[in-house]
């Protein structure tokens, strides 16, 4: 091979349970022997077997030389017959334009069957490899790894790998086999994964509005019962009650609660108001999740773990550092009483605090990023180094432009409909009038964010400020291709790129953007990556992202009659010292409290 020639190839590994040692044929089977898998042995599995398959961009001799040192599984890689893996399709996570939970990654490959035997241990000459592999194993939910290798001057090295779970493994009409794999975040979409979990408990007898001894079925092992405990908050119909004590068990259990209709108060703020009602025997009792000064990162972690995401996927220290930078001293104070899909709960919280969450299959982690115009851009791409020639495309997104953002908050009764205007008592808004005049866009662009029961007045003001400032200039989506050797960034990073246009002085325009997608594309000659980014209006200049319209310094214009203006909030609540230009345009500013600065 020519010097410095770089060849890419891929290996797919599936890990399935394996019966090492004795394998006794099940009594109702009439095969000649068992094949050391749980489906073909009486014995349970006591080990794991790795099935490996490769693409055909390197020959058998290279694979043979590579196998012992690089795969090192002690189990054969299926390299015989060219084009074992005929094609690979991978769909990486894509961030949402307006923050929240990203799309889920997935992966599939098409493999051609052949005369052979997957084992393990015992083999037959009859039948084909993949038909026997599926017959001997249940492949659903098995660990699957996609390994991306390169070979330069006959030296093979692992570039990256992604972890998935097998979703299905099936044969097509043309006798090819299709392996489809899902990500860990797929669990957030499963119908049975609810938060808080449905309790299923019921009232044992009728109660009126004054009863403070609530008859229930006690204990989770009791039909229509649950594991009640002092301090829990329960919801019956539209009424909330806090348990003082649990008395008795089984069909004689009761719960002692405060006087009915009592407001439930957390350590700092009231969590909900409630109205006493009568209830009938058999009415459902839902145990609620109480967020009482709960950290944002702790809550999101608890939800993910409760729906089955492994704790090892949650880099809590990284989440904590990110939240402490952009949402320091803000907590969740509310009661979660309606079982919702895990995805819906996570997405609501992420949107409320303008967070991006996505799964990084290469590191097997769930990443979290706070969207802020104060994020720095240390990575700069250029045409030919990071952006392939003629691949860059830019599109304006006028629907995303925002000159005024508002959000409703302060929901007193958490049993009321959280989408109804009348459920909320306060509204926060942030205006950027700089670009509304006839010299610029010529009109306002007002955006209403989803009403949120978890915002305080100040956090709601920060949320509206960040949305308006980021999108006050019409955002642009950029798409480009990059070669693997230049991919030194990942989804969620803030980078700068040449936009392909020029600035008023004739110099090339450089734009800061957040990377929204980095998607591997597999073809006959190797790998490249299809990327996209959303332009990012910076609040400061002097870095590699300088040059976008309006970029250079955050300008805050104050006009009209205003009270309780918090310049820290107006600047987006940045955690470090920054320079901000404040323009007072016919402003009359006052304060409604002696301890609130004007």
Can you put this structure into words, describing what you see?
- The chain has 598 residues and is mainly beta.
- Helix content is 12%, strand content 37%.
- It has seven helices and 37 strands.
- The strands form eleven sheets. Strands 3-2-1-7-8-9-6-4 form an eight-stranded mixed sheet. A six-stranded mixed sheet has the order 25-33-34-35-32-28, with no helix packed on it. Strands 11-19-13-14 form a four-stranded antiparallel sheet, with no helix packed on it.
- Strand 2, helix 1 and strand 3 form a beta-alpha-beta unit.
- The longest helix is centred in the last third of the chain and has 15 residues.
- About 3% of the residues have low confidence.
Outline, from the CA principal axes?
A: flat
Beta-strand segment tally: 37
Radius of gyration over C-alpha positions, nearest whole angstrom: 29 Å
Q: What is the oligomeric state here?
A: single chain
User: What would you call the structural class?
Assistant: mainly beta
- Spans of at least 5 consecutive residues with low confidence: 68-74, 542-550
**Straight-line distance between termini:** 73 Å
- Identify the strand order in the major beta sheet: 3-2-1-7-8-9-6-4
**What percent of the residues sit in helical stretches (DSSP H or I)?**
10-25%
Largest sheet, if any? Answer: 8 strands, mixed
The fraction of residues in strands falls at 35-45%
The overall pLDDT average reads 86
How many helices does DSSP assign?
A: 7
Main attributes of the structure:
598 residues; mainly beta; 8-stranded mixed beta sheet; 6-stranded mixed beta sheet; 7 helices; flat
């Amino acid at each position: 091979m020519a010097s410095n020639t770089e060849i890419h190839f891929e290996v797919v590994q599936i890990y399935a349970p394996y019966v090492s040692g004795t394998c006794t044929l099940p009594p109702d089977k009439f095969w000649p022997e068992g094949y050391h898998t749980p489906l073909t042995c009486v014995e349970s599995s006591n080990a794991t077997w790795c099935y490996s398959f490769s693409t055909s961009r390197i020959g058998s001799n290279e694979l043979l030389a590579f196998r012992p040192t690089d795969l090192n599984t002690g189990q054969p890689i299926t390299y015989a017959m060219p084009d074992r893996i005929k094609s690979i399709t991978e769909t990486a996570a894509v961030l949402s334009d307006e923050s929240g939970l990203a799309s889920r990654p997935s992966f599939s490959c098409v493999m051609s069957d052949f005369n052979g035997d997957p084992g393990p241990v015992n083999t037959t000459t009859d039948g084909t490899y993949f038909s026997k592999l599926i017959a001997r194993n249940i492949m659903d939910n098995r660990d699957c790894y996609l390994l991306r290798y390169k070979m330069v001057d006959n030296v093979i090295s692992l570039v990256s790998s992604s972890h998935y779970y097998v979703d299905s493994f099936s044969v097509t009409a043309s006798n090819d086999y299709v392996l489809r794999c899902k990500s860990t975040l797929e669990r957030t979409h499963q119908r049975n994964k609810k938060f808080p979990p449905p309790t299923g408990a019921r009232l044992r007898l009728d109660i009126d509005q004054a009863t403070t001894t609530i008859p229930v079925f006690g204990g989770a092992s009791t039909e229509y019962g649950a594991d009640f405990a002092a301090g829990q908050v329960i919801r019956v119909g539209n009424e909330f009650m806090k348990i003082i004590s649990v008395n008795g068990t089984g069909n004689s259990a009761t719960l002692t609660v405060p006087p009915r209709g009592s407001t439930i108060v957390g350590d700092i703020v009231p969590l909900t108001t409630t109205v006493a009602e009568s209830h009938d025997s058999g009415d459902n009792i839902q145990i609620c999740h109480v967020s009482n000064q709960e950290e944002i990162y702790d809550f999101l972690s608890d939800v993910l773990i409760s729906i089955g995401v492994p704790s090892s996927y949650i880099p809590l220290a990284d989440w904590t550092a990110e939240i402490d930078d952009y949402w320091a001293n803000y907590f969740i104070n509310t009661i979660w009483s309606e079982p919702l899909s895990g995805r819906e709960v996570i997405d609501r919280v992420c949107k409320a605090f303008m967070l991006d969450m996505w799964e990084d299959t290469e590191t097997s982690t769930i990443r979290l990023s706070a969207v802020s115009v104060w994020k720095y851009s240390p990575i700069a791409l250029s045409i030919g180094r990071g952006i392939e020639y003629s691949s860059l495309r830019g599109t304006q997104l006028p629907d995303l432009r925002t000159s005024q953002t508002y959000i409703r908050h302060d929901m007193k009764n958490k049993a009321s409909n959280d989408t109804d205007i009348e459920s909320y008592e306060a509204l926060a808004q942030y205006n950027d009038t700089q670009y509304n005049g006839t010299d610029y866009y010529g009109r306002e662009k007002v955006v209403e964010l989803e009403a949120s029961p978890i915002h305080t007045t100040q956090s709601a003001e920060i949320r509206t400020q960040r949305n308006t400032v980021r999108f006050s200039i019409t955002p642009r989506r950029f798409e480009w291709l990059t070669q693997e050797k230049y991919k030194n960034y990942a989804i969620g990073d803030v980078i700068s790129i040449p936009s392909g246009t020029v600035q008023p002085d004739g110099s090339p325009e450089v734009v800061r953007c957040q990377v929204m997608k980095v998607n591997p594309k597999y073809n006959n000659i190797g790998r490249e990556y299809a990327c996209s980014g959303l332009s990012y209006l910076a609040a400061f200049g002097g870095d590699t992202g300088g040059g976008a319209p309006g970029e250079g310094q955050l300008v805050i214009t104050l006009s009209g009659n205003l009270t309780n203006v918090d310049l820290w909030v107006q600047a987006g609540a940045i955690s470090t010292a920054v320079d901000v230009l404040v323009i007072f345009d016919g402003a009359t500013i006052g304060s409604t409290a002696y301890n609130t600065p004007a």
